[in-house]
Write a structure and sequence with these properties.
140 residues, mainly alpha, 45% helix, flat
């Protein structure tokens, strides 16, 4: 899985300029970029038995919604499961948010902490299990 991490990234929205890029040009560029991203995913999936992509990864409209939400948002919140926050954290989403604008902020919301015992709660928020504490990324 680590060897394919470079292919398991959020597709980037092609560059465009308001008033310069037409809606048709943007639509075509998004489709072409997304198709190339899908080809990369297909090759990763072919070489990794058991790796399955959901219909969401294969749906351009889902990614268009994400692109637009990120463009319009000042803060992007990722909700991660307290039982294994690093499994659910998407580092590439954080990177993409900063690519769109350095002023945008990322925030991790740690959910389901109530399902942990006190001991688990404090040990699961250690530097070893949550490297985002070292990153300085805000979390709740």
């Amino acid at each position: 899985m680590e060897a394919n991490r470079q292919f398991l990234k959020i597709p980037r929205r092609p560059k465009w300029k308001r008033g310069v890029t037409t809606a048709e040009e943007l639509d075509q560029n998004e489709r072409e970029t997304f198709l190339e991203w899908r080809r990369n995913l297909a090759s990763v999936q072919e070489t990794n038995d058991g790796l399955i992509f959901t219909p969401f990864e294969r749906n351009l409209e889902v990614w268009r919604q994400l692109w637009r939400v990120i463009e319009r948002s000042e803060i992007v919140v990722q909700i991660v499961d307290a039982r294994n926050p690093m499994l659910f954290r998407c580092l590439d989403l954080e990177k993409y948010v900063k690519e769109v604008s350095k002023r945008k902020k990322n925030l991790l919301l740690i959910n389901k902490a109530d399902l942990l015992s006190d001991t688990q709660r404090y040990s699961s928020l250690s530097l070893r299990s949550c490297p985002f504490l070292l990153d300085g990324l805000p979390f709740l």
